[in-house]
Amino acid sequence: MKYSHPAKRYAASILVIALCGAIAAPSTASDSSRLDALAGRYWRYELSNNFALQMELGVPIRHLRAPTLEASRQSGAFGASVLRDLSAIDPGRLDHDRWLTYREIQYDAQGLVGDAKYYWFEQQITPYQQPYAYMLQVFSSFRFANGADGARYVALLHDVARWARSARAFVAGQHERRIILPNVETDAAVAALQPWLAPAASSPYHVDPRRLTALSPADARTLESTIDAAIDDDVAPAFKALVAYLGGAYRVGAPTGVGQSQYPGGKAYYLYMVSRVTTLDLTPQQIHAIGLQQVALLNRKIDDVQKAMGFKGSAAAFREYLKTDPRFFATSGAEIGDRLEWFVGRVARRVPLFYDRLPTAPYGVEPLPANLAGAETFGYYDAPTAGRVRGIYRYNASHPRTTWLPQAGALIMHELIPGHHFQISLQQENDALPPVRRYDFSVVAYVEGYAEYSSQLGFDMGLYGDPYYRVGRLMQDMMVSCRLVVDTGMNDMGWSLARAQRFMRDNTVLTEHQIETETLRYSLDLPAQALGYKLGELTILAYRADAKRRLGSRYDVREFHRWLIGSGTMTLATLRAHLEYEEALAARH
Predict the structure, then answer these.
(1) Displacement of CA 122 from its chain's centroid (Å)
(2) Would you list the domain boundaries of the chain?
(3) Tens digit of pLDDT for each residue in 193-251?
């Protein structure tokens, strides 16, 4: 199938959106005031139910709401009520900024409704979908100023136990509906759950007495004893019951295959997730074809690097050389950090030529906490919070001798600067945005698409001139392009896990462990999520090409980047209309 770029495929519908938003009539008081009130209502809902958001803003966390069926139904009902209220507002009568708010609330509310509809499909215990490791930050950053804080900590521990019991009920409900993980994924889930089974003395939730110095010695001892009792009597048993079920009755009837299409209703769920993640009107078959085309293109570019590096041999031999030669790997976790920091400095010196607005939040790299090392293939970006102003790329330092160093530059540009740190921090620091947009990062194709766009920007910045780092970026690009093929292959086309792993093995330099964890992630943990990276990048590149063509000599890459990440997260269709609005505004001035 001939590849037709997503941006062009969207042209007709985007024109309607542009007319509604970019060339909208001035706001009317009724439409504007109703939208402002609805935005405030949505924000209060988000803040009251999202512990990660509360932690980010420094709001005291008093409850950890478990994702029960009833909670999902309530969320879906709330989303439906928001959509009803939005239908009473004419988006064509809103100013541009409010129109962006309208579009973002609409997207989020549609997600609440859809997620409730497909409640039984969204995993809760798989390695990439376990909330406990990230929830641990609530406890590890908890400050004890008085006895009331201690009581709150204990109450939150009981919430964690309820969360584990809820997960036990959830997987049992899935089992009744024949949505059962294959044993290979259940094994991975059980392994990732092990830290939470520990007794109080070795539990991640145990509180070191040095954190209780604000209390009297007697109160501190009492609180420590109460916390340990909550762990031993409630938290650990709840997780043990969950793991026991996963190791026994849950496995009856477990499939040998992977992917969503094997489950009753799974194909419809996957189509929903494809639409939700990409925000583009593309079928899995079209996405699969785009992936194959991108993989072929990248293989040609990698062949050119092979020649530049003077390697004599086949393409397969070159990949084997990249996978095995010691010069491409770290000897220690510290060496990984040093290489990442070195590339941070290189990027920072070039950034002002491409960006005229930089975040004030500092940034850096740190090793991934040990309790997360088994669940993360590479690492993740940890955004600034009220208690920590620094944005951090937390890299996996646990397997240095299998960490491929040429990818260091591409990772830094994706995860830190000018990728996630720039986009997320600038959005958090933009007090002109209403809170419902300022702290919303829900559109995968925008957030991850921009990060991948940032990574390829290293070519424009002249940072991949060395074949060593050029092949690193190309191999990262190869991985996210392969995702288009294997994600759709396993979830829509009946590919086996072995076939997907073979495709990744033939085209990437990932280790066997990385290939195993990544393919499970695509097929069972987070189906369709990985599609947003490459499709988002391709769409942004197409939008940039359109801007260059329209603006000609007036095109300024710094101005384009300000437009791109200066107004918050949005769907790719909304982004297109927003960029055209900004271009028209700049032309008038």
Answers:
(1) 15
(2) 132-180+183-254
(3) 999 999 999 999 999 999 999 999 999 999 999 999 999 999 999 999 999 999 999 99
